[in-house]
Amino acid sequence: MDGRRKTGTLGEAAARRYLEEKGWLIRETNWRTRLGELDIIADQKGSIVIVEVRTTRGTRFGYGFQSVDGKKQQKVRRLALQYVKSHRLENRPLRIDVISVLLAPSGEVERLDHLEGAF
Fold first, then answer.
1. Could you tell me what percent of the chain has a pLDDT over 70?
2. Domain total of the chain
3. Which residue range is the domain that position 96 belongs to?
């Protein structure tokens, strides 16, 4: 596994643990279509929440959440709508969150930021 993939996997695992500790039900992780991938799909108080996870090993280029640009937001929105339609969940409230994970050199979580309703 290359460095970037390992970093992403560690961050997604940390985000999942964080959400589960808050009592969220994780429906799916790494849901893929030909258009792309959604990191985490969860149920929270009756809402479907799509969680985009961004993991970094330093802040030289900012925190992970700062890398979610307009193009990425559009892609996640499209994928979220595709997920909701394919699972017949159109009647449920939908929200998109971002979790930003900063890893220490050891691989431990140094900081985790959860931006609810990020876009």
1. 99
2. 1
3. 3-115
Name 108's Cβ contacts closer than 8 Å, sequence gap at least 6: none
Which pLDDT band holds residue 1 (cuts at 50, 70, 90)?
A: low
Q: How confident is the model at residue 4 (pLDDT cuts 50, 70, 90)?
A: confident
- Please, what sign has the CA dihedral across residues 61, 66, 70, 74? positive
Token readout for 2 is: 């290359």
The CATH number of the domain holding residue 10 is: 3.40.1350.10
Q: What is the pLDDT of residues 5-57, one digit of tens each?
A: 889 999 999 999 999 999 999 999 999 999 999 999 999 999 999 999 999 99
**Could you write out the DSSP letters of every residue in 18-75?**
HHHHTTPEEEEEEEEETTEEEEEEEEETTEEEEEEEEEES-STT--GGGG--HHHHHH
How far lies 89's CA from each of 59, 78, 112, in Å?
37, 15, 29
State the CB neighbour count (10 A cutoff) for residue 26.
Answer: 16
